[in-house]
Amino acid sequence: MIPAAPVAGTAAARSFPGTPAYLAAARSFVCSCLPASCPRRDDAALVISELATNAVLHSASGLPGGSYQVQVDLGAHAVEVTVIDQGPASVPVPARRPDGEGGFGLGLVAELADAYDSRPGPAGRTVWCRLDW
């Protein structure tokens, strides 16, 4: 049986363990929520990679037993991708890796997205972006 293509107005959510091993699964989940003809599929894959990576590296979601949630809201001409993490880690994590790599993810998301926001919540931080087409 072939699953039905995603349709506008649908929303999906899934939780992922806060380990780097599940970043590809988060990316696959977001892409599976988009129609095959979506012109922003590559952008959606890139922004979820950045947002999920930030949840794992820079929040309590990346601590042992941590997790984060990914939400996808599909509209007729846009997709909203949201990551809800478990808030600040108990030990500060450097924004840049020691080798100087990284630290550009949210700038990249802001550049690609048609709208973008980050806000603290009672159980963690919510970061979302909208990609129009």
From TrEMBL:
InterPro entries: Anti-sigma-factor_SerPK (IPR050267), HATPase_C_sf (IPR036890), HATPase_dom (IPR003594). GO terms for molecular function: ATP binding. Keywords: ATP-binding, Kinase, Nucleotide-binding, Serine/threonine-protein kinase, Transferase. Residues 16-129 form the Histidine kinase/HSP90-like ATPase domain. It comes from the Bacteria. It holds the Pfam family HATPase_c_2. This is ATP-binding protein. It comes from Streptosporangium jomthongense.
